[in-house]
Design goal:
With 108 residues, this protein is α+β, with helices and mostly antiparallel strands. Helices cover 67% and strands 13% of the residues. Helix 4 crosses helix 5.
């Protein structure tokens, strides 16, 4: 066994309960079409809740609910400008997984 294989084995052994929970919640976030659409939109640039609703033809309450879920997982972040919140993605790793999965789906 090479040193690289040993390193992989060690990483697999390090899946504690918190890590497993975060991984499963991340995949849960990516398993819902509306959240995928929102994250894909935010991969381009930041948007306000109203802009997200308009561009994706979603109710503001739906957008807010999904953004809260994504924010709790630290997949999106926001900045306030006056009374408006502007959301952007907050995890390059997850965005890369999303982009790769979209590319995979488009090539089938």
């Amino acid at each position: 066994m090479t040193e690289d294989n040993n390193r992989i084995d060690l990483e697999q052994d390090d899946l504690d309960e918190e890590t497993l929970f975060i991984v499963s919640q991340t995949f849960k976030a990516l398993s819902e079409p509306t959240r995928i659409r929102i994250l894909h939109l935010l991969s381009e640039k930041e948007h306000s809740v109203n802009e997200i609703g308009e561009k994706l033809s979603l109710l503001q309450t739906t957008v807010s609910h999904q953004l809260r879920f994504l924010k709790n997982l630290r997949l999106v972040k926001y900045r306030r400008e006056g009374t408006t919140l502007f959301y952007s993605h907050d995890d390059e790793h997850v965005m890369n997984i999303l982009k790769q999965t979209i590319n995979h789906a488009r090539h089938h």
